[in-house]
Amino acid sequence: MLKHFGSKVRNLRVTRNITREDFCGDETELSVRQLARIESGQSIPNLTKAHYIAKQLNVKLDILTGGESLELPKRYKELKYLILRIPTYADAERLKLRECQFDHIFEEFYDNLPEDECLAIDSLQAKFEVYQTGDINFGVEVLCECFDKVKYKEKYTLNDLIIIDLFLTCAVVSKFNNRAFTKEVFQTICKTLISQNHKLTAEDLFWFNHVLLNCVFVGLCLNSEECLAEMLEVSRQTMVSTHDFHKMPLYFMYQWKYFITIDNDIKSAENAYQQSIMFSKMIDDKHLIKKLELEWQEDITGH
């Protein structure tokens, strides 16, 4: 796949006397490291980066690709969609299916994926392993490679959100061990997330909302009131604007926890609990209903 793409890019760039640094500019579209890996044949660019490269070289993309397609395989996109969209909620059958989905990607597609897609799959699988085993080393290894570039960004991509989700998972599983978590970085991410719903594409808003609610959960675990109300409101607005209510049960679960721990308002918490059950019934998720019922009993008994 695209065997000579990198060498063509390098030859054209060198012929035009353009350094990698000048070619990449502020590195918003393409980093010097990424260009070097593409030119050496170590990685394949995604469609966006390929168009940027062709534009910088002032050639048609077909000249670089030799007519080969840069579109991701349909089945790969389906598998990634299922991994991003369908939560497991610790259900044994869903966990087994998720493992099969990852196996399929690694066996059939991974070796020919662009670098950005490989990073997304690495991060999603690392989260799955951390979640399954309780061993944060699966996630820390990935975070060490890429989290520094993400944590202080002002605008997130889907990959950034996937990496942030891995950071949150490692934080919770490690019980906020300082090897995997710093409160300062977490608060910075929360403040940045609140402004992201108008900057992301519509197809990325589901995962944005997923990460937003995970940040609410972490904030509640830390007993930190900062940004919680704003994040819950942005989550609600996102679901209303996209007409996607699959996360409503979790939204109302975190709302009831907020009412109990922050506002000490049991009546409002009970109403939020009823809403969470109602939306779970709407999406016909019996496993989730049972988990919410148990969670409510624990929260109300412990109060």
UniProtKB/TrEMBL annotation:
GO terms for molecular function: DNA binding. Signal peptide: none annotated. SUPFAM superfamilies: lambda repressor-like DNA-binding domains. SMART domains: HTH_XRE. InterPro entries: ComR_TPR (IPR040799), Cro/C1-type_HTH (IPR001387), Lambda_DNA-bd_dom_sf (IPR010982). This is Transcriptional regulator, Cro/CI family. CDD domains: HTH_XRE. It comes from the Bacteria. Residues 9-64 form the HTH cro/C1-type domain.
